[in-house]
Specification:
The chain has about 290 residues and is of the alpha/beta class. The chain is built from 7 helices and 9 strands.
C-alpha cells in the first residue's frame, strides 16, 4: 500500500516549487493509494484534489479542506458518500465507477450548498430505477448530473415525487445488498477476472507454494488460471487484480535485472614490445603458423 507522505506530496508539488502549505491543486492519481490521509493537515488551502484511479475504500480526512472546490475520486473502491459535509466550498464531485450502492448516503451532501456538479456513472446505484430523480430532488442545488444539465421542470417534478421515489430507492439498495451477500456466499467470496461475465460458479485451485518456489510451468499455469477465470466486479477483485499485476511486474523486473547483471567474459590479450595487441588462444584451438601445405 502506498501512503500519502510529505515526500510524495512535495514530489507532486513541483509546479509550486515544492511548497505544500500554499498548495491549491495536487494530482495523486494512479498512485496505488488505499487511504486518504495527511492532506488535510499539510494542504489546508487545497482547491483541487485528483485522487482518481487508486484503491481508496472510504472518503475520509478531508473535513479540514475548507477551500476544496473539486474532488475527483473516480475509479476507486468507495462504497458510500460520507465525510464531505465540512467541505463548505465543494462545487464538483466525481465518483465515477466506484461501488456506491447506498444511494441514500448522498443525503449527507444536502448542506453543501455550492455543490453544482456531480458524477456517479458506473456505480451500482446509477442503475436503480428513478436514480436521477432521487439525486436531483435530494440535492436541489445540483445543476449538472453525470454530465447532463438539470432543468427546472425536471427538478420540480422530482421534488414532488421524492417521498415515493425514496421508498423505491431504499427497497432497491436493500435488495442489492441481499443479492451481493448471496453472491459472495455462493462463490465463497472468491474473485475472478472476467468482469461482468455470466457463468457458472467455479473455484480456482489454490497454489500454496510461494511464487519464488514455483517452476516456470507452474507460474504460467497459475497466471493463465487467474486471468481466464470469470470475476465478480467488487473492491476485493480490484485489489486482487492490482496485487497480481504488481507480482507480474516485479517478476519481469527481476528477470531484467538478472539479464543486466550477466557479465560477458572479458577477452584476454597480450601486448608485444611494439605495442600491438594480440589475442590469446583461450579455447586452445589447434592452429598452424604459416601457409598450409
Amino acid at each position: 500500500m502506498v501512503q500519502i507522505t510529505e515526500d510524495l506530496i512535495r514530489k507532486r508539488a513541483e509546479h509550486n516549487e515544492g511548497l505544500i502549505y500554499s498548495l491549491e491543486e495536487i494530482s495523486l492519481h494512479q498512485s496505488d493509494i488505499e487511504k486518504i490521509e495527511n492532506i488535510d493537515k499539510w494542504c489546508r488551502d487545497l482547491k483541487i484534489l485528483y485522487l482518481q484511479s487508486n484503491l481508496i475504500d472510504k472518503i475520509e480526512n478531508v473535513g479540514k479542506l475548507k477551500q476544496l472546490e473539486y474532488l475527483n475520486l473516480a475509479l476507486n473502491n468507495v462504497a458510500r458518500v460520507e465525510n464531505l459535509e465540512k467541505c463548505e466550498n465543494l462545487n464538483k464531485l466525481d465518483l465515477t465507477v466506484n461501488f456506491i450502492a447506498e444511494l441514500t448516503s448522498i443525503e449527507s451532501l444536502r448542506g453543501n450548498e455550492f455543490l453544482q456538479e456531480m458524477y456517479m456513472t458506473g456505480n451500482p446505484c446509477s442503475k436503480f430505477d428513478n436514480y436521477r430523480e432521487f439525486v436531483i430532488a435530494t440535492l436541489p442545488q445540483i445543476q449538472r448530473l453525470d454530465g447532463i444539465e438539470v432543468t427546472n421542470t425536471e427538478r420540480l417534478e422530482a421534488i414532488q415525487s421524492l417521498k415515493s421515489t425514496r421508498e423505491s430507492i431504499v427497497f432497491q439498495q436493500n435488495d442489492y445488498f441481499i443479492q451481493e451477500q448471496r453472491t459472495k456466499e455462493g462463490t465463497g467470496g472468491r474473485w475472478y477476472t472476467d468482469i461482468g461475465a455470466e457463468t457458472e460458479s467455479c473455484t480456482i485451485t489454490e497454489v500454496t507454494k510461494p511464487i519464488s518456489e514455483l517452476t516456470p510451468e507452474e507460474k504460467q499455469q497459475r497466471n493463465e488460471e487467474f486471468w481466464k477465470t470469470p470475476v465478480e466486479n467488487t473492491p476485493e477483485t480490484r485489489k486482487a487484480i492490482h496485487k497480481k499485476l504488481e507480482e507480474e511486474k516485479a517478476e519481469v523486473e527481476e528477470q531484467r535485472k538478472g539479464i543486466r547483471t550477466n557479465k560477458v567474459p572479458k577477452r584476454e590479450t597480450v601486448l608485444e614490445r611494439e605495442g600491438r595487441r594480440l589475442n590469446l588462444n583461450q579455447a586452445k584451438w589447434p592452429f598452424f603458423v604459416g601457409r598450409h601445405k
